[in-house]
């Protein structure tokens, strides 16, 4: 821009930029006040259309409003983005080793307590517990089994069971998918009975609809607190929960800080694009006025008026507000992260 500006600008423009006084048009000694005014306006015009100023302002020269994906930010996208990395494990595994040991101690004949019991349903249709050999006959449900199915399925035509004239109640075979899920429900409920002896709770998905999650196992805190023999386990669980709570907090802080950094980056990107457009508009105004024969002062005053409008431009204010908002979020979560670390370390 500098070369084009000097070519189209009046002669006094280059002189004042070089620090040389401009003599009056009618001759005589240079007017010091007028030269000060010309010097200020010429330098203002030059700075207003200077593209190199983007190197030292708060704007970024990135080519995209999105931050590049790095190994540390991989957890911010994907199917498990809502889960901390220390929770995401291989399918079928038990996260807590103590829970896995407790399950093994009471159900050592069951390969995987989270596997669907209906997968091992034999052709004759009677499922039996691998641990205690208790049979569960879907064609002849006990009273407790009827209550369990009714708890999940309700009563009525879609209750999932059929009652015969002789009083026998069986699972409704008309819907095979519902039938198999009901078998799963009966089997998992039986496993849960075994696990209660070790102060464990087995949660399993409802048979009402398609599964969205595998069963889960965790400690029964009430039972642990009432049995002195499990005091060591309870204390260890409390320590593990404290550590996991800290890990979860650090994960949340990382997510929010990365989100805030991405927001700041996006806002700065859009501000850069807006600023470059503003500089182009300034250049066009200066060229137009110089080409029309306007002097340095008039051109500078017109440029001041244009930049006053830029200062209150709605788009610019919106992205500046976005930048400040995300900076506030980043500072807030960095402070929380520091406080949580001190709490965990006890300092």
Q: What key attributes describe this structure?
A:
two-stranded antiparallel ribbon; 5% strand; 347 residues; 2 domains; mainly alpha
Structure notes:
With about 350 residues, the protein is mostly helical. It has two domains: about 1-70 and about 245-345, no CATH class; about 90-215, no CATH class. Helix content is about 55%, strand content about 5%. The protein contains ten helices and six strands, in the order ααααββαββαββαααα. It has helices at about 1-10, 10-15, 30-50, 95-105, 145-155, 175-195, 220-225, 230-290, 295-310, 315-345, and strands at about 125-130, 135, 160-165, 170, 200-205, 215-220. It has a two-stranded antiparallel ribbon. A hairpin with a 6-residue loop joins β1 (about 125-130) and β2. α3 crosses α9 (about 295-310), α8 packs antiparallel against α9 and α8 packs antiparallel against α10 (about 315-345). The chain is elongated and about 125 Å long. The chain starts with a helix and ends with a helix. The model has no long low-confidence stretch (mean pLDDT about 85).
Strand content: 5-15%
Question: What's the number of domains?
Answer: 2
How do the strands of the widest beta sheet line up side by side? 1-2
Rough shape? elongated
Mean pLDDT: 85
The residue ranges in which pLDDT falls below 50 over 5 or more consecutive positions are none
Number of helices: 10
Q: Roughly how much helix do the residues carry, as a percent range?
A: 40-55%
- What class do helices, strands and sheet pairing give? mainly alpha
Order of helices and strands: HHHHEEHEEHEEHHHH
DSSP, total strands: 6
CA-atom Rg in angstroms: 37 Å
| Terminal CA distance | 58 Å
Biggest sheet architecture: 2 strands, antiparallel
